[in-house]
Write a structure and sequence with these properties.
The structure holds three protein chains of three kinds. By secondary structure, chain A is mainly alpha-helical. Chain A has 13 helices and four strands. By secondary structure, chain C is α/β, with parallel strands linked by helices. Classes of the chains: A mainly alpha, B mainly alpha, C alpha/beta.
Chain lengths: 349, 315, 354
């Protein structure tokens, strides 16, 4: 492509190479731009990412729906109320105890997805429950990430006694299956709440499942982080920074952390997905969100009891849960593919 | 190899001790309020609370408390405050059920995951691969208790294809035993199939690009020989350890959800019921049991891995 | 050196072209490479990274086949055409007739399989030898390549050997079925210089003993000077010069070759101020200049260079010596001598015109 003869014998060494690169129009795309470009091409991942955002937006808009459309709240009982459908009166909860199924728009949006055994509007509970589930999921994921980074960095970078202690701690935590640990903590804290020094939490505070879930996943992320820090530590650019006199904190922030970023991003999306699932499991067992607060897990719990008579009670929150988690998983998968430099079989002619 | 095993077993003992400390910490130290009140469950009476306090040594210092708790657990002196039945007996009764569920599901998921994962890897990038990936992703997105409940209802109760939950002893009727477990096995396996097929696919794709596979091809081996002797074998080694860990986690806790939904009356369901009643002794005992099981399995898994990958044991 | 290679060519490559479809477009890795190899001959294929030398070597064994690869041209080996052969035909050839030694001995051996088992695997693939005998042969081979205590070490794993030892294991593996052609892809690049000498020595001895022909792919001219009979210099997918060892070293015809020779640090000359290097970079594989690919870096470029120079014999009396440079032989003799007695690639300053 370049046709100028290379008679610039005055320019040698790196400068000549730069000039060459300029002429050849080779612009180095950083790994982030490259990743973004690859992600943009992955239509399915983008679609599901968008779906997730939609679901989150819907949950955030819970009060809107509750006020304007369903005209009720998440916990309001309508046991003895009736609704007008096609001109006829229908009991919200029938005399046999069976609540009404999804009405869709037939009653002006009231009981859009039906009612539960206490006569509560499922759609409203679904959205408010979604708020809880999502809040727990995201905040727990953040807690896990921060703790994992700190522990992983300290253990991997400084090694020595700190590493031994942290590893032992992680080993012990790792030995508790996620559910059992969550259950144990949930039970222990449900009655009286938490009191650890200055931190005081009521038994039904949302902070408790957040704290439990956030803690439980730490070993799953801290280990890979530590592993990556271990290998990054040996790389030349870290040695170079050290030789320049940079202190450990500075090195950790400027050299190590950015290289962990892609792993962490992928992990984070998957963490949210798993945290949401764990919250549902814990709530299902009674060790998570405490009634009457709604969450997808508690709703499924209530629904499973009555699955024979009113299947929609279990199906609705479950589908919502699956869609949310699925969209996170597909998107997270797409992000991982995009950031992975080793692109596997991609193009075929 | 022997030295490695000894080292690992010692480590295991240490971790178990630490686990017991942590459990004690969780149940007695962190929570707010009077441990005796907590122990007594919902709506206790004053005499109950006082009796519990004496029994568990809550009036004494923290070391005594720990020892008392450990003594009670290991001498089988734990009694549920709700059912009045000894905890140890219940656990022993429930163990074969939990193990039946866990082992069956584990074998099922392993087999299916290897098939899916290998097929996916060999058709990487093509439609079959994408399709299986979506299926796998759906699998890991479904809460096991939800899909289990739906399966139980629609396939068991409504369609009558399968029994509506419950457990039959293997010794009484092996066929019926399996028949009752098919749905629970499937429900439990779905999540892991999704996860493991993708891990295997990823491992296989990585391994296929390794230099030694190229060397194997240069030797003139057939694709099948290369796949089995070099690719699959090397791809499965890390999976074996994961599998062991997950199996431990299932017995230790994941089974809770499936047992509850299908009413299998295993250790998991026992724990779940106790949770609902805030009945501490069973929860305490099952927590320790679960954790110990996992620690044991961790050690076994490490030893098996060292056997499979000589680099680990000889360095 | 021992008896010169002779006889009919064992392997004839004609106009080999290999291209790959990548994210950046179609990459022509090999553009019309033709070679021939006679029994017992050591042919060195020299070039930078990206010159296409490894792709050429691996294509001969069908190791570059993939859904996004396209091949043209032919490679005839003892009557079988290799480039478009079926997998079954190729499998027959691999290991038994043509064997390969790869660049990185650390990763080229299966880490969880004993080396004895890996050698036996190849032997039993091509010959119906029972386990015990196959293992015996493996022990002999290890011994022959210079692995001490071969009988004990045959059950060791690859990580229990040093890099040089591992490469010897690979050589033993390659020779296990007495192939007629050995392709060595940068066999010493991952090794220390001292080990390098030993490995090359061993390879030459094996050629003398077994009569196998060797294709040695490397970027290191120093390695080549030691053992090659003939040399093919590749640049950007094409062979730009080929000839005997003496022809290339003493009568190089292509400016790229001059650059390569000129950039070797010489012990027998006064130290230069700066290590001479060829200015610029090889063209990106997807975007090459028209005509001669070396144009942008060549100080001797002139108007005819926009046409692709064919690979032809241009020197009287050296029929096997071909190159791709439009300059006349006398012109070349003059331009390549940048200093008295020194070959290199530099533009002549006006003052220094010879």
């Amino acid at each position: 492509m370049a046709t100028e003869p290379a008679t610039e014998t005055t320019l040698q060494g790196p400068a000549a190479w730069e000039a060459e690169a300029e002429r050849e129009h080779v612009h180095g795309l950083g790994p982030w731009k490259l990743g973004l470009r690859r992600l943009r091409r992955n239509k399915i991942a983008l679609l599901f990412g968008f779906l997730f955002i939609l679901l989150v937006a819907a949950c955030i808009a819970a009060p809107l729906w509750a006020d304007k459309v369903a005209k009720t709240t998440a916990n309001a009982n309508h046991l003895s109320d009736t609704i007008t459908v096609d001109g006829k009166e229908k009991n919200v909860v029938g005399l046999d105890g069976v609540p009404v199924g999804p009405q869709w728009w037939k009653a002006d949006g009231k009981f859009f997805l039906g009612a539960d055994r206490n006569g509560r509007d499922i759609m409203v509970r679904l959205l408010y429950g979604g708020r809880n589930s999502l809040e727990i999921g995201v905040v727990a994921a953040v807690i896990t990430t921060i703790l994992s980074i700190i522990l992983g960095l300290v253990a991997g970078y400084f090694r020595g006694p700190a590493d031994v202690v942290i590893r032992a701690l992680l080993d012990v935590m790792w030995s508790f299956p996620v559910i059992i640990l969550g259950v144990a903590l949930g039970v222990a804290l449900a009655l009286g709440g938490l009191k650890l020094g200055p931190i005081k939490l009521a038994g039904d505070s949302l902070a408790i499942p957040i704290f439990i879930i956030g803690l439980v996943y730490v070993p799953y992320m801290a280990r890979p982080v530590r592993g990556q820090v271990l290998s990054l530590r040996e790389k030349e650019f870290v040695e170079a920074a050290r030789a320049q006199g940079a202190g450990p904190i500075r090195i950790m922030f400027t050299e190590v952390l950015p290289n962990l970023a892609s792993t962490m991003i992928v992990f984070f999306t998957l963490l949210i997905a798993n945290a949401i699932l764990l919250e549902a499991a814990l709530s299902f067992l009674g060790a998570g969100v405490q009634p009457p607060s709604p969450s997808w897990g508690t709703m499924i719990d209530e629904g499973v009891d009555r699955i024979a008579t009113a299947p929609h009670l279990a199906v609705v929150p479950g589908v919502m849960l699956v869609l949310t988690v699925l969209s996170l998983n597909v998107f997270g998968d797409g992000v991982r593919d995009a950031l992975d430099p080793r692109a596997k079989v991609r193009l075929e002619r | 190899m022997g030295r490695f095993i000894v080292r690992r077993v010692l480590q295991m003992g240490f971790v178990m001790f630490a686990v017991s400390l942590l459990t004690f910490f969780i149940f007695n130290v962190i929570p707010n309020g009077d441990p005796a009140v907590r122990m007594a469950g919902r709506q206790p009476t004053e005499t109950q609370i006082e009796a519990i306090r004496k029994e568990w040594g809550f009036n004494d210092n923290i070391f005594v408390q720990y020892f008392t708790m450990m003594k009670k657990v290991f001498t089988g002196d734990l009694v549920s405050y709700f059912t009045q039945l000894p905890v140890g007996d219940e656990i022993v009764k429930g163990l074969p059920r939990t193990l039946s569920l866990a082992i069956g599901a584990a074998l099922l998921w392993m087999f299916v995951a290897i098939c899916f994962g290998l097929y996916s890897a060999m058709r990487a990038g093509k439609f079959a691969d994408r399709f299986l990936t979506i299926i796998a992703l759906i699998g890991i997105s479904m809460p096991v208790f939800w899909i289990g409940a739906l399966m139980n209802y629609y396939l068991g109760y409504k369609a009558g294809l399968f029994p509506n939950g419950g457990y039959v002893e293997f010794s009484k009727d092996p066929i019926d035993w399996a028949y009752h477990l098919i749905l629970p096995w499937t429900a439990l396996a779905i999540l892991f199939i999704g996860f493991y097929s993708r891990v295997l696919r990823s491992n296989v794709l990585d391994t296929i690009n390794e230099d030694y596979v190229r060397t194997a091809r240069a030797k003139g081996l057939t694709e099948r020989q290369i796949m089995v002797r070099h690719v699959l074998r090397n791809s499965l080694i890390p999976i074996v350890t994961l599998w062991g860990l997950d199996f431990g986690a299932v017995v230790g806790g994941g089974a809770i959800l499936t047992e509850t939904v299908f009413d299998l009356q295993g250790v998991g369901q026992y724990a779940a019921d106790a949770v609902g009643q805030l009945d501490v002794p069973p929860v305490l005992a099952t927590t320790l049991f679960a954790a110990f099981f996992i620690v044991l399995l961790n050690a076994v898994v490490d030893i098996v891995y060292a056997y499979l990958d000589p680099r680990i044991r000889l360095q | 050196m021992s008896a010169p290679p002779s006889g009919e060519p064992l392997l004839t490559v004609e106009d080999l072209r290999v291209s790959f479809a990548t994210e950046e477009g179609i990459v022509q890795a090999v553009e019309g490479v033709s070679l021939s190899l006679r029994p017992g001959e050591i042919l060195a294929v020299v070039g930078e990274s990206g010159s296409g030398k490894s792709v050429t070597a691996m294509t001969l064994m069908g190791l570059t086949r993939s859904p996004n690869a396209r091949f043209e041209g032919t490679a005839h080996y003892k009557g079988t055409e290799l480039v478009h052969a079926s997998e079954d035909e190729l499998r027959r050839v691999r290991g038994a007739e043509i064997a390969m030694i790869f660049q990185d001995p650390m990763t080229s051996l299966n880490p969880v399989m004993r080396i004895g088992a890996q050698i036996v695997e190849q032997i039993q693939e091509h010959e119906a030898l029972p386990d015990q005998q196959a293992k015996e042969r493996a022990v002999e081979l290890l011994d022959k390549v210079g692995i001490p205590r071969a009988r004990e070490r045959i059950d060791n794993y690859p990580f229990e050997f040093s890099g040089g030892m591992r490469q010897r294991v690979m050589i033993a593996l390659a020779l296990s079925c007495n192939p007629s052609v050995l392709i060595a892809d940068e066999p010493t690049t991952a090794l220390d210089v001292t080990i390098q000498a030993q490995i090359l020595q061993r390879m030459r001895e094996l050629r003398d003993e077994t009569g196998a022909a060797i294709i040695l792919v490397t970027h290191d001219l120093g390695v080549v000077a030691d053992i090659a009979d003939r040399i093919a210099v590749m640049y950007s997918g094409r062979i730009v010069e080929q000839g005997t060892l003496d022809e290339i070293f003493y009568d190089p015809q292509h400016p790229y070759t001059w650059g390569l020779l000129g950039s070797i640090a010489r012990v027998d000359r006064p130290r230069p101020e700066r290590l001479p290097a060829i200015a610029g970079l090889p063209p990106s594989l997807a975007n090459r200049p028209d005509g001669c690919h070396f144009r942008p870096r060549c100080p001797h470029e002139f108007s005819k260079c926009v046409e692709v120079p064919p690979l032809e014999t241009r020197v009287q009396g050296e029929p096997g010596h071909r190159d791709r440079c439009w300059l006349g032989p006398d012109d070349k003799k003059e331009r390549r001598e940048v200093r008295p007695g020194e070959i290199g690639l530099e533009a002549k300053s006006e003052a220094g015109a010879a």
